[in-house]
Amino acid sequence: MPPRPTAAPSLFSETPISNPPATKKTDWINAHCDGGARGNPGPAGYGALIQDNEGTVLAELAEFLGMRTNNYAEYSGLLGCLQYALDHHHPRLRVVSDSELMVKQIQGKYQVKSPDLKPLYEEAKNRIAKLEAFEITHALRHKNKDADRLANEAMDRGMRRGPAIGSSSPSQPAAPPIIKANPYPTKSEAPPNPYAKADTMLRGFTKDGVVHILGGATLPDGIFVKIIRE
């Protein structure tokens, strides 16, 4: 009897093949961020443009921050970029900002003396430590136009002067979607806002150009007071 032919090897292995590991993102991403306040403090917002190493826009970040200072808004822009990189698993981040103060504080060239900025600085350093590589550089405002535009659009929306996020004119192509990215993933992480609107009205009187608050209440420095004649 002739030998029985052996079966040809199957094209499909009976041993399950595990999926190959996901490719780790190792390329740098680049972020331009800006923040501002109309009045210092005043209605504040930040904006950021995130691009890959080829210049393709990955995201536009924008957030209205309420009544805050310019420096708070600038730091919020940096924190928003850092959180985007962490959330989307980009381990290498370059940031460009026109805030010389913030850039040099993060670089260690300036000390952080303001008690209002210290928690922002510490949170930024904490997020930077979670990345494999990080760089931050200062640029003049005219080289940071996109981030400046996004920050002003965030302030306009917060003050109800501009269109809603994602709206576009019928005669114009749709703009890239703006990610409404809170720089603090949970509200508890955000420093307290000394400029937030009070829940109750305080009563007092003026004498010799000085406002005296009844009941022993005190006001934090830098807030705006509206005087109503009774």
From TrEMBL:
Task: Tell me which SUPFAM superfamilies the record gives.
Answer: Ribonuclease H-like
What GO annotations for molecular function exist for this entry? nucleic acid binding; phosphoglycerate mutase activity; RNA-DNA hybrid ribonuclease activity
Q: Per UniProt, which keywords does this protein have?
A: Isomerase
Which PROSITE patterns does the record match to this protein? RNASE_H_1
Residues annotated as region Disordered?
A: 1-24, 162-195
Q: Its domain of life? A: Bacteria
Q: What is the E.C. number?
A: 5.4.2.12
Q: Which residues lie in Polar residues bias regions?
A: 12-21
Compositionally biased tracts (Low complexity) = 162-172
What Gene3D superfamilies does the annotation carry? Ribonuclease H-like superfamily/Ribonuclease H
CDD domains assigned to the protein according to its UniProt record, in alphabetical order: RNase_HI_like (cd09279)
List, for all copies, the residue spans of the domain called RNase H type-1.
25-164
Q: What is the official name of this protein in its record?
A: Phosphoglycerate mutase
